[in-house]
Winged helix DNA-binding domain-containing protein (Streptomyces piniterrae), 388 residues
Amino acid sequence: MASFRRHITAAERRARLGHRHLLAATSRVKTPEGVTNALIGLHATDPATVFLSAAARLAEPDVAMVERALYEERTLARIRCMRGTMFVVPAPLAPAVQSATGKDTYRDRAAAIERLGNAVGWDERRYTAAEQEAVAALAARGELTAAELAAAVPALAEQITVYPGKSYESRQRVCSTVLGALAAEGRIRRARPAGNWTSAQFRWAPADPLPQVPVAEARATLARHYLAAFGPVTEADLKWWTGWTLTDTRKAIAAGGAEAVDLDEGTGYLMPDDTEPVDEPLPWVALLPGLDPTPMGWRDRHWYLDPDLVPALFDRNGNIGPTVWANGRIVGAWAQRPDGRINHGLLTDPGGEARAAIEAETARLTDFLAGTRITPSYRTPLERRLAQ
């Protein structure tokens, strides 16, 4: 006899999203650690996303609170992990996340040596000497910017051409290549930015090596956390989100103890203790930043995003811009104008109650920004229009 599998509708998935992703006002939490624990990690390619994603889910958003977690208490860790992308993750989970998704760090170093060999004639001996001097300078002097490190270690000030022949060809110090490889190895870490919380220019500091977690164990751990935060999900969702192969994805789902359920698009997975129906939250709205983990959390997005809206909300590389949400669906976008005002544009009508709530949430975001200007790293068509 075939076993019964519960069917989870798109409406229930949207209800789960409101609760699990802390977007319903009644689900907001008090600390950035609470936000990050709920979502596994916050996208950090654009530094402002970390703060804006947290602010959308905090009962009382505060820049200083997020900075303390990142740079003083270090309860949050900024690492390169899923799909080679920068994330801020809970520090206790960082070893498993890095083991589950990180590339072989030797390959990063070997690629860096090859790159600098081709660009400026460095061999492994010269590269090793430069990285040792960089690590020693940080150990002796603490946090330093890349420019300060290049001044302390003259070899790091050599210039190379990146993307030669492209319209975006530029010159940069070899320092960037060396520091990137050292960070991938976990020997150094990004510390406070050189500017305010929106700055992408970070200081560098010595790092404590992360404990090693067996890869299979780490993948099972990450799969369990992902299913708890984003479930129900498909194999394709988890494969895309992590960057794993399909074989590794299936092994992690099985090792994590997931239970199969039926979705509109086929088989999905949940943790065994998470299969009961979820109540619909009270009506809610949210203004989320570009690259927020919620819209970037699934490969198949039709249950919360009308496919016809994709061209306006994503750039050509698949990066989503700032979005406006109402009751589990993306209904528009928002942007900051040159005078600092928040402007939003709706692509579908969410109703009068939601429109009023969006105005209130816009005021809440304005208060959080307190005059700070932000421009997403990845500009999308609608965001550009709204920012004018």
